[in-house]
Task: inverse folding
């Protein structure tokens, strides 16, 4: 397995959300994963390790402000540790924390502040593509208990609008997405494309024999026209592109106007419901180390 990108790009990636105002907006604009995603993850853990009253430790890597993923693990574990390389994201997570068994810490994914063979679950929500994958998976193998689980999930930009004018809305959105994910956008880098490809690239796969992927999961989001546009703008390849020059901002404003027209409204607070496609990678560390189960054993 080889890393997708060099260290210089990793450093740049770590700064994409390193802003206090941006982190606060991130909390408001980002979608939440439904409970069904975490139930799927925990069912996979239970298959491997049984069902005690609580498992000892879970680590949510690339946790961001915590509200999208970390807090959902609180009922299942004695301790949940959320880590992120962004200081401002950890500040938000700590500010929002209402769970006594949840803690947050600044840490890179490739060097976790966790003892060997101590974690039942390593969870990664919408962040795996930013890591040095070879180093990260080696670190997971170090900290997971035998039979412990890696769960990585994200969502695509494949969006289905539940609206009487869905076809018109989808046409405008497709034009926006096509431009933003093309070679015209220098911020749509290799790591962003791993998500667009739904983590199918060989470099992303969990290096355990006992692993699987789950597709065709959909997150239903009930919001407003403004809420959808804020969410889409929070995606780093979108935000960085439209903020890079006045011409791109003008293009974005024109797209927003066309999007509203497609929705048949001039009111940004008009309700809008959509479904976004999600996918999961799951893998178990072998209970008995064997050279053919994992490249790290």
Result:
């Amino acid at each position: 397995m080889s890393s997708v990108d060099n260290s210089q790009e990793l450093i740049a990636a770590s700064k994409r959300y390193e802003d206090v105002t941006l982190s606060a907006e991130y909390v408001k604009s980002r979608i939440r994963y439904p409970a069904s995603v975490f139930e799927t993850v925990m069912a996979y853990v239970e298959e491997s390790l049984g069902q005690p009253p609580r498992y000892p430790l879970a680590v949510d890597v690339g946790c961001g402000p915590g509200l999208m993923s970390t807090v959902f693990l609180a009922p299942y574990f004695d301790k949940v540790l959320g880590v992120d390389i962004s200081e401002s994201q950890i500040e938000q997570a700590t500010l929002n924390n209402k769970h006594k068994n949840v803690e947050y810490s600044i840490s890179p994914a490739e060097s976790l502040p966790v003892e060997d063979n101590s974690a039942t679950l390593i969870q990664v929500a919408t962040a795996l593509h930013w890591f040095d994958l070879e180093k990260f998976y080696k670190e997971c193998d170090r900290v997971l208990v035998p039979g412990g689980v890696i769960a990585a999930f994200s969502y695509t930009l494949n969006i289905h609008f539940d609206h009487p004018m869905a076809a018109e809305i989808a046409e405008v959105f497709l034009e926006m997405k096509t431009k933003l994910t093309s070679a015209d956008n220098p911020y749509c880098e290799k790591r962003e494309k791993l998500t667009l490809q739904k983590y199918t690239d060989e470099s992303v796969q969990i290096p355990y024999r006992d692993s699987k992927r789950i597709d065709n999961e959909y997150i239903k989001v009930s919001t407003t026209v403004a809420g959808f546009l804020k969410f889409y703008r929070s995606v780093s390849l979108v935000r960085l592109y439209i903020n890079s020059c006045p011409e791109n901002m003008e293009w974005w404003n024109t797209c927003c106007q066309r999007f509203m027209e497609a929705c048949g409204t001039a009111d940004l607070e008009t309700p809008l419901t959509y479904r976004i496609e999600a996918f999961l990678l799951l893998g178990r560390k072998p209970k008995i180390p064997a050279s053919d189960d994992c490249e790290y054993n």
Notes: DSSP finds ten helices and seven strands in the chain. The CA atoms of residues 62 and 84 lie 4 Å apart.
